[in-house]
Amino acid sequence: MSSESETHSASGAPSERSDGRETLYISPAEEAVDEMERVSGIHPGYRRAHARGFCCRASFLPSGKAAPFTTAPHLQEHEVKAIVRFSGSSTDPALADLLSPAKGMAVQFLLPEGGRSTLVGVTVPVFFARTPESFMEMLTTLNRTKTGRMPKSEALRRFARHFGESRQSLLALKRLKPPASYATNLYYCIHVYFLVDEEGRRRPVKFEWIPDSGVQTLSIHDAAAMPDDYLEREMELRLQAHPPSFKLSIVFGEEGDPTDDPTKRWPSNRRRIDAGRLVLLEPIPEPHGLIMDPTSITEGIALSDDPILNFRRDTYAESLKRRSGGH
Ligand code: HEM
Prior knowledge:
The protein has 6 helices and 12 strands. The protein is an alpha+beta fold and about 325 residues long. Helix 1 packs parallel to helix 2 and helix 1 (about 30-40) crosses helix 6 (about 305-325). The strands form 2 sheets. Strands 3, 4, 5, 6, 7, 8, 9, 10, 11 and 12 form a 10-stranded antiparallel β-sheet that branches. It has a two-stranded antiparallel sheet with strand order 1-2. The structure holds protoporphyrin IX containing FE.
């Protein structure tokens, strides 16, 4: 899918596109991935976002504090294995670490009875779009302005329409400093999930990964002197010296806290528990077919009705399909 489209519908209905001979139907996920490919071109074999990454083998020891709230096997008392992938957010795998401000940390827990549960975090606490439709409009506007197919005045008008929802995310991005290491960032999983206990009671939560070494950043000056892939090199060395670790912090929402809006933070005084500790053990080559789909979760955790969260399932699958097919 790479022909240009003039309309888009991220709402679930396939949209139409004509190549002059026949009408082609494409799904919202295909359309989104097409648009993402227009940002920096197609890089065969790579993810269509967060293209370059670094994988490690890890181990998660739950504290047991989440057990009263969820039946999720990895949040009880026994250690589970995990795969972690750190990444830069760019769609271009060749972009220097310094130039992609937000970083990602995706964790796949390998459950004792088989099965997996995934958590995907980034270094900003909120997303820039409230719905897939907004996401698509902002991305198409960006791409069309870049290629001269939309006048700047029209682009500004469109971005202004979304400024309210994007504001917090843009401010957070602006405040980001280059990380000293992938292991010294705080990662927010942004969306709301529900913990589900034995009686079926559901509680809204957000997940955060807090680095045990504390947040450490570099000045722009120092980061500019680093090699393009300094974060990967640094992790190789760090893992040889001492296993880095993160705490999994679970934040509980209260009555009135939004559960379907990834552009909104909850008040900072919400109750939290320390649900366990993830220790990174050694670098590994990326496992074949690895997909960090944030909707792939185990029993004891449920998805919220956040439209962005639910939209991610099909777009991640579409990206996997393209990159595994050699595209
Ligand atoms: C409309 C919303 C979004 C779309 C369309 C989207 C799309 C994508 C796609 C296509 C990939 C590559 C998937 C693959 O090939 O496996 C990806 C990766 C990723 N995205 Fe998103 N994304 C969205 C929202 C978010 C949000 C809200 C976060 C914040 C937590 C996020 C964080 C990440 C991370 C960390 C990765 C790399 C995962 C890995 O290491 O495998 N994305 N995204």
